[in-house]
Amino acid sequence: AAAVFQTRRSYHEKDNRPRNVGSMNKTDTDVGTGLVGAPACGDVMKLQIRVDPKDNTISEVKFKTFGCGSAIASSSYLTELVRGMSLEDAARIRNTEIAKELCLPPVKLHCSMLAEDAIKSAISNYYTKNPKTATTNLGGT
Ligand code: FES
Ligand code: FES
Predict the structure, then answer these.
(1) Which of 46, 52, 66, 75 counts the most CB atoms within 10 A of its CB?
(2) Is residue 110 in contact with ligand 1, taking CB distance under 6 Å?
(3) How far is C-alpha 138 from the geometric centre of its chain's CA atoms?
(4) Which residues contact 100 (CB under 8 A, 6 or more apart)?
């Protein structure tokens, strides 16, 4: 299993430079902040989105992940994926898509779950700050 894991981590290892690491001012009204933890291991992910209110799309994404390589790769991939996306579409991203793209082994599935939880949490925070723009139902997650 270790050998399989090595090859499958190649996405992250090959270009070992996670994209969009950083933070934004969480008091900005157009910024939504998600902070989530993985009960399985205690790792934590902070994900922030800046939303263009004209069309409800994500114009900027930043993350900080205090966790394993798979969690960092998952959040890095997620930030690339959601930039330019509408909040509606971003809310529909499933961790299985992330896990598939990164070829995460089953034991690392919860790392991609952290990324799904983080984007939902960030969107929900944005809607809390900007209730009038809320068109997406995030329920049932
Ligand atoms: Fe060690 Fe996630 S369990 S970093
Ligand atoms: Fe827990 Fe990766 S987030 S091991």
Answers:
(1) 75
(2) no
(3) 15
(4) none
Tens-binned pLDDT, residue by residue, of the chain (141 aa): 333 443 344 444 444 578 899 999 999 999 999 999 988 899 999 999 999 999 999 999 999 999 999 999 999 999 999 999 999 999 999 999 999 999 999 999 999 999 999 999 999 999 999 987 766 556 544
Q: What is the number of other CB atoms lying within 10 angstroms of the CB of residue 74?
A: 32
Q: Using a cut of 0.80, tell me whether the model's pTM lies above it.
A: yes
Q: Give the ligand whose atoms come closest to the C-alpha of residue 67.
A: 1
| Ligand 1 atom 4: residue of nearest CA | 68
CATH of 2-131, picked from 3.40.1000.20, 3.40.630.30, 3.80.10.10, 3.90.1010.10, is 3.90.1010.10
Q: Which ligand is nearest to the CA of 95?
A: 2
Nearest residue (CA) to ligand 2, atom 2: 111
